[in-house]
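Researcher: We plan to redesign the surface later, but first we want a full-length starting point. Tokens attached.
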């Protein structure tokens, strides 16, 4: 299967590192013109330079904008007025005992992980519908379905994305635009390494720490290892293609078999 996205423009939020950078790279290698987004000019410039080294023939556009704000969203829209593929990847996560999560933290998680994606969908979806083609995706998590006791504010935000995705898919019904969620499982990124070491012995070598984390905190995983960002990106690139034209309103899992259910 050769996925060809030449002539398509994509925006991947939060794409200066981790899963977002892997998605940007995958879309770029498939031929799309890709907007690389982060909060600062410096971080975006570094990411774009790295991506260009990895995919010299791809086209990457710097989109330095804090899309959690109205002003930042306007900046992103000025850089990329129209996109064919919107990947709402930006998200924050962290561990906190349930009864210690403050009102401000609840609001921050909702506004960052959910409302930012809603705002960008509201901005770009009408153009996709008018053109008769488009792809909107939300990077959700196994935590949307199996809420972790140590981070229920994060789980709440990812559950909300499943509802948002299904709702916007209904809005786009019959237009040639598909809207889906990607349920990512525990994934190996720099931020996750820090999170793993916050829950296991920091003196353990990484391979042992990873196994201990999966055994103690993610025992449902059938993969029994952390997923690599490229494995998430592969599914996103497929869902961005013409091959996925009949997949919409779905929550598609790339979770290593973590969620112990037939359906999400």
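Model: Full-length starting sequence:
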């Amino acid at each position: 299967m050769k996925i060809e996205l030449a002539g398509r423009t994509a925006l991947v939020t939060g794409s200066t590192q981790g899963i977002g950078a892997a998605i940007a790279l995958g879309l770029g290698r498939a031929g799309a013109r890709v907007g690389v987004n982060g909060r600062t000019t410096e971080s975006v410039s570094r990411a774009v330079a790295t991506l260009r080294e990895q995919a010299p023939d791809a086209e990457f556009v710097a989109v330095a904008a804090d899309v959690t704000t109205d002003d930042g969203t306007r900046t992103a829209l000025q850089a990329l007025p129209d996109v064919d593929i919107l990947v709402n990847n930006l998200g924050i996560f962290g561990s906190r005992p349930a009864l210690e999560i403050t009102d401000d933290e609840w609001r921050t998680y909702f506004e960052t992980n959910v409302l930012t994606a809603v705002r960008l969908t509201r901005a770009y979806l009408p153009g996709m519908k008018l053109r008769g083609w488009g792809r909107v995706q939300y990077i959700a998590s196994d935590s949307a379905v199996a809420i972790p006791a140590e981070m229920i504010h994060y789980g709440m935000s990812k559950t909300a994305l499943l509802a948002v995705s299904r709702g916007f898919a209904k809005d786009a019904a019959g237009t040639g635009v598909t809207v889906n969620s990607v349920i990512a499982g525990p994934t190996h990124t720099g931020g996750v390494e820090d999170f793993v070491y916050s829950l296991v012995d920091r003196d353990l070598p990484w391979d042992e720490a990873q196994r201990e984390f999966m055994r103690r905190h993610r025992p449902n995983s059938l993969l029994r290892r952390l997923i690599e960002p490229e494995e998430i990106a592969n599914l996103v690139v497929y869902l961005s293609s013409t091959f996925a034209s009949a997949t919409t309103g779905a929550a598609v899992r790339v979770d290593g078999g973590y969620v112990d259910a037939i359906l999400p």
